Amino acid sequence: MTDSKLNVNGLTVSEEYQARTQSGYGMLALLFLSCILIVISAPQIGVYGLLPVILTALGIVIALFISCGFYLLNPNQGAAIQLFGAYQGTDRNTGLRWRMPWLTRTKISVRVHNVTSEKVKVNDLRGNPVEIATNVVWRVTDTSKALFDVEDYQEFVDIQIESAVRVIGARYPYDDIEHDEVTLRGDADEVSEQLEKQLQERVMSAGVTIDECRLTHLAYAPEIAQAMLRRQQAQAVVAARQTLVEGAVGMVETALDMLSAKDVVELDDERRAAMVSNLMVVLCGERDTQPVVNAGSLY
């Protein structure tokens, strides 16, 4: 079985496969038998001639050979086996294991990693500086790529997290009061999904799988935070006043139509204009209005 292939750039890419190792418990029993052989034959040296010497030496050689091949694997841990630098597969079987003494092994954790990135300052789609931080849950799924295709897979992942955050942060605006487009603040789930997809493409070459990616911090940069807050407040005030005016116009129109329909009062253009003005002041004013009783004629 081959342990590598060439990618589109002509570089060697490793692929994980099962190493030819075995359980260490059988070899432990054999080690115990060799120790018994040494214990039995060693006292007989000089009594029965050359045979005890041979048996003792054989027991010592077997014991040393077996002892050099033991290693332990914890749950969610793998061992990449190498022969003089050549990859010979990965052992993921837990417990006491044994391999040929001339084979070296490099242990690697395949547990889930939870990383919260540092705050990264990014210019959003509109050029406003914002601070973004994310939490990424990842794990190694291909030990061969993680060990042999990148220099340091953990550092590689950390750098790619920052790079992906910068790309996604520049792709969307921070906020959109009209809700016409995807924003960092208003569409966190979609942004997180795109961030996870972007990051997975970047760390695939290191044999890493991204399980989850969520934004943990999102804010305007301190130098524009106050200015952006005032802008948001102004936009909110304008939107509120627009809604208020639209409602007031509808109420005035309804009141005039009802007065005319029920023949409550005859209104000429001048009286209609005065009533519209008074109603708009009452409905749109920020302070409570004070009624003025007109004791005389309107004219």
Automatic annotation (TrEMBL):
Transmembrane segments: 25-45, 51-73
Membrane topology per record: Single-pass membrane protein
Protein name per Swiss-Prot or TrEMBL: Band 7 domain-containing protein
Originating species: Sphingorhabdus lutea
SMART domains associated with the record: PHB (SM00244)
UniProt xrefs under CDD domains: SPFH_like_u2
Domain Band: from-to ranges: 68-232
Keywords: Membrane, Transmembrane, Transmembrane helix
Record-linked Gene3D superfamilies: Band 7 domain
InterPro entries for this protein: Band_7, Band_7/SPFH_dom_sf
GO cellular component: membrane
Pfam families: Band_7
Compartmental location: Membrane
PROSITE patterns found in the cross-reference section: PROKAR_LIPOPROTEIN
Coarse class of the protein's main subcellular location: membrane
Entry annotated with the keyword Lipid metabolism: no
Record carries keyword Transmembrane helix: yes
Superkingdom assignment: Bacteria
